[in-house]
DNA-binding MarR family transcriptional regulator (Eilatimonas milleporae), 361 residues
Amino acid sequence: MTLNPAATAAGFFVAIHAAPNRLELTVHSIYINAYINAVKGHPMKTELYHEIGIGTRLRRLLERLTAEADHLYEDAGLPIRVRHFHVLYALECCGPLTIVDIAERAGFSHSAVSQTVKKLVEMGFLALNPTDDARQKQVSFTPGGHALMERVRPIWRQWDSANKAMLSEGQHDLLAALGELEDALDRKNLKTRFAEVGTDSPIEILPYDVRYAAAFKTLNLRWLEAYFEIEPVDLKALDDPEGYILSGGGEILFAVQDGRAIGVAALKHDGDGVFEFTKFAVDPEVQSKGVGSKLMQAAIDRFQARSGRRLYLETNTKLKAARLLYDRFNWVEKEPARQSPYARCNCYMEWQKDAQSATAA
């Protein structure tokens, strides 16, 4: 991962993590928005840009922090500006480097670094020296550059302390979040992610239809075979969903897209207003598109519409993704109300309308 202060967030700097062949330029800042407004006594405006405008928000923050930092340089009588930081900081931490080396460490383009180096050479702070490779030159400080850094270092240390104090006021680990965001972009860029989301047809949640009976079995067998062994009680439900679930007053819901069932969930009625949420499965090809959430919400809505008394499920703790979904929808782990008919189940959960108060109780 390469942290890029100018492109990624704010360009406010200076936590030093130097390694022999890698410099991690760490961004320190987003909480300055709230901090500055609090100092001025102005409440924050209602935020317009959320996930869709993350680039706009980062650019807004970058411009604000760049202006603030440039004023600090100016007040100190220094001729450099924020746009020079990535080059000066890399040389300060790592010593003489080629332009390629600086670009790699800063995460900037070769062209951008080259232009900054050229400007600092013109200002008399850097020199270009020949290397064994005729195509590259080594960048180093001139005597004037070393004198400049003597004045800059105390300011950077002060900024580092101020930024750390500012970040400590927040509830979240901003630097870790920025790193995770950059890692995600390294794994898969935004263009690829945009294409994957695509312009899919809408997903409908429909009641049981014999046309989708085969999908009810196929989708469930797929995840059961991937993680566990098929048990007799599974086949009893999958081979005869109408007799095992529907005839007892239960319901089966399908997530359907373009006429194809891509997800399924069932409410098995145990009697006296008690329902089991069961046979919950989503086609792996669409598991990142919120199908499971739609099915879960639809099942809960049906339970409430029928004035159900208790809604429970049985699962296994190895199903991490499912557990995250259950937690998000206010399922609370409890002592089992009965012996499970499934050998694989080691976790019993009940849905709570108010999970917080239920957990406290």
